[in-house]
């Protein structure tokens, strides 16, 4: 279970897009919400720096208090924290000091839509957070998680590696909390041999074998999860992983994508350029990203 949700806010309507999903999670998990606002190093040319900093701090406190009162009206335990310094560094420090289990934040803030996740606060948090990070897009309809009888609500891409499977405990936690169905997705990449006429038969046979192996793998994972009382479906699709997850997977009806930041390529590969980054750039759904070494729900945080 997630006991403490950290929601970084910068005062923008973009950052506040993370609030509805954070509230929904907190209500179902009976978790507390910590609202964090970070004040960067201000520049006040020709003015009273001390007075300006005091006023900025008071305005930030008022802002947090207003947001907190709105959330508290939902019956949730809410705390506020004001930090000074670099945004990403302050968020990472607050994760540890508050004992947060999950960070819920928007992929964009005051910099707006013109600046994507490359080099952004969200990317820095993703790269170093010891707990999962749930990224919410700044546009589109608010996400509502709940039981889905016809369509799976949670999409979990797997590539057959233990690293990718670190997302499964988090999917299981959310599936139990919301009574949702998990859709396990495995992508089989097309062979370049298919473009050579003389090798097409060989390529098709190889593709069929890979599909059979992928189905067998997903069936084994699904059977294990079903043994824990979870509702699970499986699907194998052909294509490039980021395209399949971000576009085709999103059309299958899920409300949330849950995936590890690294898979078969290993942790040596940076998030930049990875399948995970491509998914959060292009997928219209919120994405819960789990670093392979991140804290697993229910485990001691110092484990």
Write structural notes for this entry:
Helix content is 36%, strand content 20%. By secondary structure, it is of the alpha/beta class. A ten-stranded mixed sheet has the order 3-2-1-4-5-10-9-6-7-8, with helices on both faces. It is elongated.
The number of helical elements comes to 8
Helix content: 25-40%
Order of helices and strands: EHEHEHEHEEHEHEHEHE
Secondary structural class: alpha/beta
End-to-end C-alpha gap: 16 Å
How would you state the average pLDDT, rounded? 82
Sheet-strand content, in percent, reads 15-25%
Largest sheet: 10 strands, mixed
Poorly predicted runs of 5 or more residues: 112-119, 266-273
Strand order of the largest sheet: 3-2-1-4-5-10-9-6-7-8
Radius of gyration (CA) equals 21 Å
Shape: elongated
How many strand elements? 10
What is the secondary structure topology, with strand pairs?
Elements: E1 4-9, H1 19-29, E2 32-39, H2 49-72, E3 78-84, H3 87-98, E4 102-106, H4 121-128, E5 133-136, E6 154-158, H5 168-178, E7 181-188, H6 200-227, E8 231-238, H7 241-248, E9 256-260, H8 275-282, E10 287-290
Parallel strand pairs: 1-2, 1-4, 2-3, 4-5, 6-7, 6-9, 7-8, 9-10
Antiparallel strand pairs: 5-10
Helix pairs in contact: 3-4, 7-8
Question: Could you write a compact summary of the structure shown?
Answer:
The chain has 303 residues and is α/β, with parallel strands linked by helices.
Keywords:
single chain, alpha/beta, 10-stranded mixed beta sheet, 8 helices, 20% strand
